[in-house]
Amino acid sequence: MRRWSRRSDRSGRRVPAACPGRATVIFCERHDSGPGRRDAGLLLLRLGAGGVLMAHGTQKLFGWFGGHGIEGTGQFMETVGYSPGKPSATAAGLAETGGGALLALGLATPAAGAAAAGAMAGAAAVHTPNGFFAQEGGYEYAATLGLTAAGLAITGAGRLSLDHALGHVLDRNWMLPAAFGVTAAATALVIGARAKRLRKAREGEQQTLFEE
């Protein structure tokens, strides 16, 4: 008969007492679906989402893959309400490039996923007026990437990751709410400032129209 310990994984389920590892290890790493399947799936998700995020980030930072670099991206940021443009472009590029790279490596997964999700929330705010679907200019694409990054942050990177190789020193339980809390606060401030800026611009345009 299997003995159960008082330790539990992130989902709240108790794990077998015979489960190897330190008390600080997050997961028992034993799964009913068979050894390695979950880890391989997480690796594919990390490489896919992380690679796409990195590509978009390097477009902003360096102009790679047909991007416009800091200068061009900064000008675009100004037009959609993120000001000052260059710092906004730099912050978005770093969050996407850094968050994507760390997700692909499976390193500091809570912070990486939260940073990438925050960047995608900022992008989604720009596209929200166009509805959901990407073909109409909506936020579908940004939301998909953001939710994938957030899901990976919550689930963890799995065994095929640097986090696991390093004993989860950068993937403690307390780091998850801390990372999402800081990111949510920063993202809310940035998006809120943008909305206020756009509202003032619209009010100014209306006032000019009435004066004419």
Explain this structure:
- The chain crosses the membrane at residues 141-162, 174-193.
- This is DoxX family protein.
- It is a multi-pass membrane protein.
- The structure is a single chain.
- Helix content is 63%, strand content 4%.
- It is mainly α and 212 residues long.
- Strands 1-2 form a two-stranded antiparallel ribbon.
- Strand 1 and strand 2 (14-16) form a beta hairpin.
- Helix 1 (37-62) runs antiparallel to helix 3 (85-105) and helix 1 (37-62) crosses helix 5.
- It is elongated, with a radius of gyration of 21 Å.
- The termini are far apart.
- The relative contact order is 0.12.
- The model is unreliable at 1-6 and 18-35 (pLDDT under 50).
Summarize the structure.
The protein is 63% helix and 4% strand.
Which class of secondary structure composition applies to the elements? mainly alpha
Low-confidence stretches: 1-6, 18-35
Give me the Rg, rounded.
21 Å
What's the average pLDDT?
86
Biggest beta-sheet profile: 2 strands, antiparallel
What is the number of beta strands? 2
**Largest sheet, order of strands side by side?**
1-2
In whole angstroms, the N-to-C terminal distance is 85 Å
Strand content: under 5%
Order of helices and strands: EEHHHHHHH
How would you sum up the global shape? elongated
User: Helical region count?
Assistant: 7
Proportion of helical residues: 55-70%
Transmembrane segments: 141-162, 174-193
Keywords: Cell membrane, Membrane, Transmembrane, Transmembrane helix
Family: Belongs to the DoxX family.
InterPro entries: DoxX (IPR032808), DoxX-like_oxidoreductase (IPR051907)
